[in-house]
From TrEMBL:
One of its GO terms (molecular function) is pyridoxal phosphate binding. GO terms for biological process: polysaccharide biosynthetic process. PANTHER family: TRANSAMINASE, UDP-2-ACETAMIDO-2-DEOXY-3-OXO-D-GLUCURONATE AMINOTRANSFERASE. Pfam families: DegT_DnrJ_EryC1. Gene3D superfamilies: Aspartate Aminotransferase, domain 1 (3.90.1150.10), Type I PLP-dependent aspartate aminotransferase-like (Major domain) (3.40.640.10). It comes from marine metagenome. This is Aminotransferase class I/classII domain-containing protein. InterPro entries: DegT/StrS_aminotransferase, PyrdxlP-dep_Trfase, PyrdxlP-dep_Trfase_major, PyrdxlP-dep_Trfase_small.
Amino acid sequence: MNSQLPIPFIDLAAQRRRLGDRIEKAVREVMDHGRFILGPEVDRLEKDLCEFSGAKNAITCANGTDALVLSMMALEIGDGDAIFLPSFTFSASAESVVLAGATPVFVDICPDTLNIDPAGLLAGFEEARTAGLRPRAVMTVDLFGQPADYSSIAGFCGEKGLLLIADAAQSFGASYQGARVGTLATVTTTSFFPSKPFGCYGDGGAILTDDEDIADLLRSLRVHGQGSDKYDNVRIGMNSRLDTLQAAILIEKLSILKDEIEARQDVAARYKHGLEDRVISPDVTDGVVSAWALYTIRLPEARRDAVQDGLLELGVPTVVYYPRPLHSQPAYAEYPAIDLPESEAACSQVLSLPMHPYLEEAVQDLIIEGVNKLI
Ligand SMILES: *Cc1c(COP(=O)(O)O)cnc(C)c1O
């Protein structure tokens, strides 16, 4: 048993072993040609991302937070605009709204999927109106890898004339009713932070869109609002490019992503089977394939911390994503929030277990046994 310890929460080393020397070779090629900024691998990766996702355009950038900010800049979202998003998410989702100059309006989540509740959007919409804001967009977050309820949300957006922005930082590789993430919203953003389902060896991000005009704007915005070149400044932009080295690494990793997403389905199914009835397992909607960024169970609030401590003693690392909803964080105190009981409840009950495509059955059995014993 000790030979399996410590158990990694996410095993990037196993992925690297699988890829052999492909990454070293790809990195060496970039070192040799020396085009470290927007080199040929960036172009190639953008083409590969389109092919993989089915999106018409992919624009890479420096990280997933910038991908959101750049998207809102391209959509001319700013002062006085209300963006509806879940409170139960990573801070970057809401932070990007504020950085773009707009106002986040927090909406509650569905208790089964932990994603934004389409039924809560109307209350948010009214709240924004009351606050004198202009409703502009819904930002879905595909939490823990599961795409949000896009058909209901797109319906609401159509009815109210709102844009749809998908924060798919955790869900690249997932699909919804046969369509891959990247094609489900006006713009879709993702992050290549190392621990995401599709990550690089540093920071990185991308935006996917079918809209050619938005794509052209994004290509300008990521290089200081350039026109014909960097020294022709036609708008205010920023410096947000993906390093060629990271693009070269991502090209290699993308070639095994489909296989990895499939392996994650097996890991998730084994967890569900092994933990059945003792905890609340994540619920994936019919027709949806999650990227399983995380496997997050729910436990009675009174037991959660004890189970986490007990697992740590067994050598099993777990993480609470997220301990506090954003609307109750000091940084967001001034923004509108309706009553969000499901977001509050989730924060006190969730626990994420080790999750990655290379989790061996024996190790997983040990984790499952530990949870079942402690609960
Ligand atoms: C990771 C993450 C981001 C931000 O991505 P970075 O690349 O770290 O900037 C945004 N939204 C969600 C939901 C995330 O999980």
